[in-house]
Each structure stands twice: as C-alpha cells, then as structure tokens.
Amino acid sequence: MPEVSDRRGRELRVKIGGEAGFGIKAAGQTLARVFLEAGLDIADLTEYPSLIRGGHNDYFLRVSQNPIFSHVEDVDVLIALNRETVDLHLDELVEGGAVIFDPKEVSPAGWLPSGKIRPVPVPLEEFARQAGGAIMRNTVALGAVLALVHFPLEGLAESLRVQFAHKAPEVAESNIIAAALGYHYVSKNVPDFWLKPRGIKNAPKQLLIDGNEAIGLGALAAGVGFYAAYPMTPASSILHFMAKHERDHGVVIKHTEDELAAMNMAVGAAFTGTRAMCATSGGGFALMNEAFGMAGVSESAVVVGVITRPGPATGMPTWTEQSDLRYVIHAAQGEFPRVVLAPGDQAESFELTWKAFNLADQLQTPVVILGDSYLSDNRRSVPVFDLDAVTVDRGKLVTEGDVAQHPEALGENGEYLRYKVTDDGVSLRAVPGVKGALQLGNSYEHDEYGYGQPGESAETRIAQNEKRMHKLDLARTLVPGPNYFGVAPADADIAVLCWGSTVGPIREAAMWLAEEGVPVAIMQIVTMWPFPAMEVADFIGDAKRTMIVEGNFTGQLQGLVREQCLLDVDHSLHRYDGRQFTPERIVAGIKEVLADA
Amino acid sequence: MPKVADFETALTPTWCPGCGNHAMWRALKETLEELELPWTDFAMVWGIGCHGNGADFLRCQGFHGLHGRALPLATGIALSNPDLKVIVEMGDGDGYGIGGNHFIHSVRRNIDMTAIFHNNQIYGLTTGQASPTSDQFMKTPSTPGGVIEEPVNPVGVAVAQGATFVARGFAGDIPHLKELYRAAIQHEGFAVVDVFQPCVTWNKINTFKWFRDRVYKLEELEGYDPTDRTMAFETSMKTFHELTCAPDECKVPIGVFYREEGMATYQDDLPQLTAPLHKLADSPRDISKTLEAYAG
User: Fold this and answer.
1) Are B97 and B68 in contact (CB under 8 A)?
2) Which strands, in side-by-side order, build the sheet including A546-550?
C-alpha cells in the first residue's frame, strides 16, 4: 500500500474496475465531465484488453484544483464492480482510501476488515434495478462516489444527459434516478470522508479531450478534404471521429480495404490539391510503407497519423509503447525528406496536426504525426483550442487559372515542369484541372516534367534526388522546436530528455521533485525528424547530469542522440510492459540516480 | 481539343516490336480524340509493368503509381475531384495478382472510373514469369514444372462482384477495342475492360495467332444478352482454356459481357463531393461548433 503523499487532500484519484462490457469507460468519462464543469483539472487513464466482453477493464480518474500533467499510481477511491477489481487494485489504494462495492457482488473475505481501508458497501445492483435495470450499477456507483467526497449531485445529472444524448430520453432519466439513489444512500449511511474536493468558481473553460479527437479536430481546422483509413487500434477512433463529421464538414472519408489502399488513396487525393490524410498504428503503417515512399518521390503533400502500440506484429493492441520512433523515421526504401512530429499532449495533438498540413504543403512531402495509445485513448483537460491561431499555408500550390501565368514553372519550350529544380527544392504545384498543367506524378525517379525513362540518367537522378533532399534544409526553418520545462539545464540536478506522451508524467515528476528541492530540467523534442541536433547538443552540453526517459527497450531516442549529436546521456529509464511511465516511477528513477551521484 | 498527335510525348515507346501495347496505346489515343475530352477534364493512372511504361508516352494529366496500387491511387483522385474523369491502366499481374484485393473492392464500390487491364498472361517487365492469368500447366522461369493453379477469371470475378460494366477486348482488333473503350469511358460507374494483349517476347503460347484463331464477338452471338448477369458469368467461364486445346475446341469470347446503366455510383452517394475538395482548404475551417462537444 502506498504511503499517503503530501498531495493528500488537494486532489481526488478514483479508479473504477469491472468486467469489459460493464460500461466502465463511459461511466468514468461521465464522472470526469462533472469535475470539468466544476472548473477542475483532469487526467484519465483507461486500461482494457483487446476484446469486447469479459476480461478486466479499469478507468482511472485524477481530479485536481492545481495543474496536473498525467495519471498517477495512487488511488483514493476504488469502485469495485467485481471482486477481481479488489484483487487487482487494492494495493494502489492510499491509507484510509475508500472502496465502494456491492456486498452481494464482492465478498469481504480476505481484505476486510482492514484498519487501513474505508469500506463503503452500497447495494449497487438493488438500486440499479429500482431505477430500471441492473446495467446501471455503474451509475449508482457514480452517485455514491460524489456523496462520499461531498460533491454536489447536480452536475452528474447533466453529464448523464450528455452520455445518453443519442438514446431515448428515458435512459438518461433512469440513470439520473440510479445516481440519486446511490448518492442519498451514501450521504445518509456513510460517515464523513477525509477527501472533499471543491470546484473552482469562474474557472476558465477547458476542453476534456483525448489525443485522437484532438488530431481529428486539427485536421478539420486545417481544411482536410479527404481521409482514408483501415481500422486499427489505437488509431481507429480518428476514423470514427472523421466519419462522424463527414457530412457537416464536407469531408470525404473512406474506410478502405486495407492500409495499402488508404495511403495510395491519400496520395491520389493530394494529387488533386486536396488536403489528404490517413492514419493507422505501426502494423498498418508497415503496409503503407511503399506508398509512403511514393509520396516522397512524387512530392505528394500527405499527412499520416501513426498512433503506436507495443509491437512487433500484432503485439499488444490496446496498450502503449514508444518503440516505433526509429521505424517511422526510416520507413520505406530509398531516401526522401519527411517530417515527423510527436505531440506530447492533447493540446499539442491539435496544434501539430493543423501545422502538419501546412508543412506538407510547404515542403510537398509526407508529414507524420507520431502519437501513441496513452495519448490517443486518454483524456486531459486542456485550455480551449485557439482557433484564431490556425492558419492555412498551401505553399506553392496553384489550383486555378492557366499555368502560363507562372513562367517560373515552365521549361524552355513553355511546358509546365512539375518537378522543376529550384533553390529550396520546392516546385510550383499546379494541380490537374489547371489549364496547361500537364504532368506525370511518378513513383519512378523522373525528370523535371515527371517522365520516368529520362529519370534513369545519372544527371537527372542527382538533380532530382538533391532537389528533394534539399527540402530538409527548408524544413529545419519551418518545423516546431523543442519544448523546455522546469529549470535551465545548467541549474538542474538532472536534465531529462524525452519525446511524445512521456512528457506528461515527466513534468508531473519534476513538479514533485521541485517541491522536495530537486531542480529538474526537461527537454521535450517535438520534431523528431529532421532531428534538432543542435538544440539537443546544447541541452546536454549545459547539463550537469542527463537522463533519457523513453517507452522502449533499445533506447531509440538515445541512439538518435548518439548518431546525430555525437554525444550520449548519462542515464536512461525505460519501460516496455505496455504501460505508460507513472510520475512515481520517474521520481524513484531520478532519486536513484542522484543517490548514486 | 487535343488530337492523337497531341497525346504523344517526345519519348519513343520502348515496347517490343509487335507488342500488343502499341495497339492499345493507339486505340486509347484515338478514343480520347473522338470523345473530344479536353486535357483538363481527365486524369490517367498507371500501375507498374510493361503497360505502365506507357505513362511516358501519353501526354496528359497522369500519375504512374506503384505496382498493384493503381486503383486506390485513382480512387483518391476520383473521390477528391468530381470534375476529373479517371482512366486507369494496369497489367494482369499488377491488377489481378498483387492488386487483386483492390480490384474486388473497386468493383463492388462502383466508383465512376474506367479500369483497363493489359492482360498478356505473363510477367513481361520482370522477364517472363507466370502471371495470375497464365494458363494452367504453362512452363515459365518461375514455374518450370508448369503452373499448378487455375488462372484468375477477371471477367467472372467482376461480374460476380456486382460490376456494372465488364468487357473484354483483343489488341489484334483495334476498331472493336475502341468501341469498348468508348463505351467504358462513357459508362457511369466502374467499367472493367480486360484486354488480351499478346506478349511477343515471353508468351509463346497465347500469341496473336492463337487469339485470332479463337476469338469471337459477343455482339455477334445470337441470343447473347449483356444485361443478363447469369449469362455473363456462364460465358466468362468459357474463357478457361488449356494449352493443348485446338482452335475448334475452345473459343474465346470478346466484347461487352455485362452492362447495367442507371445504377448509383459511389460518388452519387457522396453529397459532399460536388466540387474539387481542395477548395475546402482555401482558409481554416470553422470548427467552433464541433469543439463545443468537448467543452466543460
């Protein structure tokens, strides 16, 4: 059992566990909305196996009056919808933490009585049946947890109406009754609990959103016109999001026969000047690789979401890992420029996605959004996205008129040259339908027009290859730089290097360490390719002691640092069990290193 | 409107003398001229193979894609710009082998586009291996003991999968082929044109003479009804032939096997596809209403 930290009382950590099919995640998100409405900061975490019914599911919710950056290990209130939840998660409960359970479902044998646990028996099933059906056990429990922590019930009714908005109105009303039964029972029968979170009056509005929704919103804001995908966890929810908004935003969404088709279709749509995107996980990206390379050689502006999970092959579909960084940076045969952006949280998922479309157009080359299951599946409260900040920059794109109006793009005989060699490597891109814009997009090496046969000459190959690769120089001037958190590296006891979603738990850990007087510097690399070697070298060079935290076995970022900066870090922390780092683990890892120093 | 000569590039075709691709190239250029299609109104897509080298010889708006992936590439074009007529050329290994999955699904979608298959029953560009339409028992460098499996029946697959236009041509009969091209391009829906295009270098069995001795036109077959799907399927089965069969033992039907006009195309069911989708990115999209669902 974890010790009660000094964060006790400032925040609430609830875990709901039960069998898959119990509506664990839906119930948890309903509870999360209650606290969001009350102005609190939220981070959640859903754990589930790759099946539809049976197996264990759990949903973790962390709520705080202060800014938070990730989930944590400690649980204050455990809602055990079955006995397995007690067996699996009781050791996460802090001393004095409560367990809400139905004595008819969860026997006390083996864990009660306990001086360290506050049992809160509630007849969940009986109340659910009274309200209209046993399925509403989870809703009764939501009412119970709010009563336990003295939080008003009103917000839950509203949140339940949101949860069941797509069903008959009676469904929401029955659930509201179920919640009220749980609430009043606990108010009347359970003595005061030590945790009493309070809402914040007039707090600025926030969004409660997961990474995939944020990516979908970013694509919509950018003016995406075509989205193609084949379902693959954990990227499928982007497809669902896009399909849901297909008609109201005029986007064409295609659920394809396979990922090969998805990537090829995206390249086809990009050929017409449409902002095109596809997304998948590592396995699907493997199938996309050849067409990903074609996007490179044909200078197609496509955006590809790669939302990773533990591999290889089918791996662990519903869990998280950062083991595809090297793969994405090197994917496809041959050499071509690409940009790889790795968002660290939900707000960045939105921002980097709309920026990815601009970069793809400006550079006329594929841009990858590299996310992971932790980011895509879980929700965080983030400031409302700044829609006024969104810009559309289509680079050297021409979609109407006559190509003769652009003499810089014409050859000596007046013919349009789609792949004309330029100083920055980017050519005028006049799309089919523009008068005179005859062209040949090509998967072969090609000449300035696009013809493949002359592309085999050594001179043409060199000219076109160099033209494309020079775009990386332009890319370096356009891509987002790293994020820095905490103190400056020179002032830090330890400087931590990271990328992607691990930045959340690392920032959380750094905050805790700062409270203990341990200053930490954090560098989150955002653009993974082209690699920001100078910035990384500066960060490492300024630091007294360095560490990389990454979710893989082989140290993929560390390898890149060695290769790109000819430098190394002093320590590394890895995790590859399908779970995200917790701040607790990172704090322990850093303390261990500092103790040895 | 561009004429036949305008569709030719400065590059000289590299196909072997006598290759059926020359005839298919000519048939296509002449059909495009006769249809009076302006350059801005259509896009060509090619897969990889001997046929695909034709991308260098046809002057137009086009894309020379990957081996086996011409159909999804073309689908991306067709589903993002309704102003473009899309014509796809593929080979037999390209379209029925490595790209077979896309073939099946493109047919059932009834996407409004034309798919022309250069079927020479052999892999030409990779020097003569068996293709998915090679006859059973045919000996090639990859099948020295003879092909074990049955050939793919592309006409039958398309008919069975709900195609709305399925035809087969022969490169040795250009006027007939042009009729099929014209009908296919004008058809509203997914039009399949499988063309026997003998490879003079690697396939010494299914030669021009072999076909000349055996082809007959469905248009001239008494009682043939190209709107009868069952009849079309049964007729497609007659295409199977063995290497030893004599001209009077096996005949090869060409012409329109099946056509069904007035069926909704895939694009018909996309009301959002009324103009080129690149217009959606003229400025940032207003997503403020969509965002509300996530706000506290």
Assistant:
1) yes
2) A483-486, A520-525, A494-499, A546-550, A571-574
Beta carbons within 8 Å of A388's beta carbon, 6+ residues apart? none
Mark yes or no for CB contact B53/A452 under 8 Å.
Answer: yes
Which chain B residues are Cβ-neighbours of A250 within 8 angstroms?
Answer: 272, 277, 280
Q: State the DSSP string of A35-97.
A: HHHTT-EEEEEEE--SSSSSSEEEEEEEEESS---S--S-EEEEEESSHHHHHHHGGGEEEEE
φ, ψ of residue B7 in degrees (nearest 5): -80, -5
Q: How do residues A307-352 score in pLDDT, each as one tens digit?
A: 999 999 999 999 999 999 999 999 999 999 999 999 999 999 999 9
Task: Determine how many CB atoms are found less than 10 A away from the CB of residue B49.
Answer: 26
pLDDT digit string, tens, across residues A104-136: 999 999 999 999 999 999 999 999 999 999 999
In chain B the domains, ranked by start, together with CATH numbers, are 4-292 (3.40.50.970)
Cross-chain Cβ contact B281/A438 below 8 Å = no
Mention every residue, 6+ apart, whose C-beta is less than 8 A from residue B223: none
> Which residue has 């969860």 as its token pair?
A106
Q: Give Rg (Cα) of chain A.
A: 26
Does A5 have pLDDT greater than 60? Answer: no
Go through A199-225 and write b for each residue having 16 or more CB atoms within 10 A of its CB, e for each that does not: beeebeebbbbbbbbbbbbbbbbbbbb
**CA of B103: which chain A residue's CA is closest?**
A257
A-chain residues within 8 Å CB-CB of B272?
246-247, 250-252
Count of CB pairs separated by less than 8 Å, A with B: 229
Chain B: residue whose CA lies nearest to A38: B296
Residue with tokens 């929401």: A172
- Give B-chain residues touching A269 at CB under 8 angstroms: 76-77, 79-80, 277
Among all chains, which residue has been given the structure tokens 């909305």?
Answer: A33
Q: Which of A29, A206, A257, A413 should we substitute to test contact with B (largest number of B Cβ atoms within 10 Å)? A: A257
How far is residue B26 from each of residues A4, A108, B175, B221, B281, measured CA to CA in Å? 82, 84, 10, 27, 39
B1 touches chain A (CB under 8 A): no
Query: Are A249 and B9 in contact (CB < 8 Å)?
Result: no
| Domains (range + CATH), chain A | 11-189 (3.40.920.10), 209-389 (3.40.50.970), 397-478 (no CATH), 483-596 (3.40.50.920)
Q: Radius of gyration of chain B from Cα atoms? A: 20
- Please say whether the beta carbons of B192 and B165 come within 8 A: yes
Chain B touched by A384 (CB under 8 Å): yes
**Strand ranges inside A132-175, DSSP E:** none
What is the C-alpha to C-alpha distance for residues A316 and A48, in angstroms, rounded to an integer? 11
pLDDT-based confidence at A21, cuts 50/70/90? Answer: confident
Is the pLDDT reported for residue A2 higher than 80?
no
- Say yes or no: A443 contacts chain B, CB-CB below 8 A: yes
Q: Please report the pLDDT score of residue A3 as a whole number.
A: 44
Residues of A in contact with B266 (CB under 8 A): none
